[in-house]
Design goal:
Length: 285
Amino acid sequence: MKIVKNIKCLQEIVFQIKKKKQSIGFIPTMGSLHAGHLSLIEAAASENDFTICSIYINPTQFNDKNDFNTYPRSYETDIELLKSLDCDLVFLPNDKEMYPSNKSIVNYNFTFCMNILEGEKRPGHFSGVINIVNTLFNLTRPSRAYFGEKDYQQLWIIKSFVKNFQLPIKIRSCPTIRDSTGLALSSRNDNLNKEEKVQAIHLFKTLQNFKLNLESKSPKGGIIDLKKNSIDFFTKNSLIKLDYIEIIDEENFSFVTRIKKNIKYRILIAAHVGRTRLIDNIPIG
Ligand code: AMP
């Protein structure tokens, strides 16, 4: 596996791959790799000639300095892990490479979706994501790029980015990988203590209860009642502070208060567990 830190070197390798008309599969990450990331790398390796993974903690997508400072970092372990997989190249740029002083940061706002839920709670977050993803797409020139459903809103926005700007890249979505308790794997889980980890399971449990109720033939109330129950439940739990729980139509990302047959929906949740903010989602329908 090639370890590349420098843009020129990356561009030269990408140029050679493209010259051979080989396909490139690309997985952008912020490191502290876990089985969720690895599933994306495996998916990329299975359908491309050359797999590139990037590890870069992008400062412009953090609206909270403390979150950026405490974001887990484990570059050496990550590289060892990647070596054991079918990853051909890891790109590990520094801030100077990604944001040279003469580069301007673009304020993206091409879909309403960038301003709701995560976009509302974390102002500027999605614009920061698109800035870095766009740069990384330009450098790696992938045929396919891989993103996790774990960050469902991000995935939706990236799909709309590619469509809007007519980029010749196929976006592949990969299912959320969970631990044995149902907790969605996340690099931020490393910041949870033992008790917080136990509490964090309530995010997935709440989503599951919601789904079971809505998909059952005799639901105990509608979406509004279910939301109220969840809010009540979290209000009583001093270790978790609910940010939101919402149901959206997967097609257009609109909020819904009633579900219909043959339409795909997602329930999305975000909560602070202690000092750590976690997000999760599951499909319905
Ligand atoms: P991150 O390093 O958190 O920026 O994530 C890099 C990519 O991995 C994103 O596309 C995430 O959606 C994806 N990802 C993170 N956690 C998981 C998970 N538990 N299952 C599947 N994909 C994930």
